[in-house]
Amino acid sequence: MREILIIGAGMAGLPCAIRAADAGAHVTLIEAAGAVGGKLPRSSGQISAAGTRLQAEKGIADTPDEHFAEVMRISHDTADAATVRVAVDHAAGTIDWLQDIGVPFPPEHPVISYNHDVYRTRRYQWPVEKGKSILAALLPLLDAHIAAGRIDLRLNTEMTAIERGDDGAVTAMTVRDDAGNETALIADAYVLSAGGYTNDPDLFRALTPNKPVYAAKIPISSGKALRVARDAGLQIDGGNLYMGMLGGVLADRNDPLSVTFALNTVPQDRPPWEVWVNLSGERFTREDHPSATHREHAVNAQDALTFFIVFDEGIRQNAPPITMAKDAALQQLIESNPSYMQADTIAALAAQMDVPADRLANTIDHYNKVVAMGEDMAFGRESLPRSLETPPYYAVHSVAFAMPSPAGIAVNAALHALDTEGRVVPNLFGAGEIIGNTRLMGNAYISGMGVGPTVTFGRILGERLGPSRRAPADRSSG
């Protein structure tokens, strides 16, 4: 029986373990947390795929070639073409497999979405209960394999070392349980499918030079597995392509790991009424630009990846809600969250924002003239519903934040891990956030190219590595 060792029981590790066990392998599944699932319980579950049954049922003609071309177009050819090709070629199989195991999708899907730059074809879908639906379908399959002895699940256990032989291949991985016991595990094939590193500011700075980290507190994004991989001589890349996501607000302006995804900045969904200004108190982009990538790049070009969304009482009273949280009124946030500011004058607001008062005043004055003229000569903004001249005045401090981790271990088209010399590590594979978000998206965010490739790579690795050979072994060291 072939032995597979998988590090990480999340949205890549679970399908990998299940499909490998389906094919007859014995799987040892290591998970640092106390439960499986990784980010699935909080994931949007969004997957893009061409040639699915869902598309066929609606008469939507689509191909992986078209999907590939659009990913490369949106990423401006900065995504890794080899792994993108693998992801899109197998994406339809993933959607079909998820349906086969009971994952429900809304009847209107696939759809077009404007959260990121738009596909020309409806190839974008997510389950009824998002990531929770995927996890709910995987758990019974996992449990059945555990009961049959095909999967050995070890929770509260983390990888601490990767041993490699003279030929570069992995000879063992050392894991440590929550009691401190260490075991060196030997397998035929090893898969790294652990989470990211956004909650490790030191590692983020090392892998993403000159970019501040803003992120939500997610304990599983500790970066520990990536540190072990780096220490074992694996190539880590992709950090130079980092692009922070829009819509983030710090719950604590002194804590960069307190981000909440709080603001709707999608003009196709909610045309902006407010003005965006930078730390100089000046506008810097067209707030309603139809390209999400354009807006993301404009914000990420600002000092500290931060900007302010400025408005007045008239906009607060009349505009559609800009907050994503349906249970938190804007006024409540203004009163309770330091990232939401209020003042009776522009000068007083500028003081709270720590921007030059004269520049902010000039910016608001010029914008009001733009609204009066009905034409934005500087940026070409089309949404000009009303001026900002009714006190009190407001500002929301927003940051471009890291949701998936940008850098990761380098892999080739066969998902083999590469070492620092670019050589294949023959029995080591990577899938999921640990291979880096930028590998599949480059310096952009692309609809369905996060969860989709993560589940897909886990699934196809399990299917490829599953055929049996020999039994597992281990060496206990305490």
What does this structure look like?
It contains 14 helices and 20 strands. Helices cover 30% and strands 19% of the residues. The longest helix is centred in the N-terminal third of the chain and has 20 residues. The chain is α+β, with helices and mostly antiparallel strands.
Q: Topology, please?
A:
Layout: E1 3-7, H1 13-22, E2 26-30, E3 47-48, H2 53-57, H3 64-74, H4 81-100, E4 124-125, H5 131-147, E5 151-154, E6 157-164, E7 170-177, E8 182-186, E9 189-192, H6 201-207, H7 224-231, E10 236-237, E11 245-250, E12 259-261, E13 275-277, H8 292-300, E14 306-312, H9 313-318, H10 330-336, E15 340-343, H11 346-353, H12 357-373, E16 393-401, E17 408-409, E18 416-418, E19 424-430, H13 438-441, H14 451-465, E20 473-476
Parallel strand pairs: 1-2, 1-9, 2-5, 9-19
Antiparallel strand pairs: 3-4, 6-7, 7-8, 8-20, 10-17, 11-12, 11-16, 13-14, 14-16, 15-16, 18-19
Helix pairs in contact: 1-5, 1-14, 3-4, 4-14, 11-12
Radius of gyration: 24 Å
Can you count the beta strands? 20
Structural class: alpha+beta
Low-confidence parts lasting 5 or more residues at pLDDT below 50?
Answer: 470-478
Query: What do the pLDDT scores average to?
Result: 95
The span between the termini is 27 Å
The share of residues in extended strands comes to 15-25%
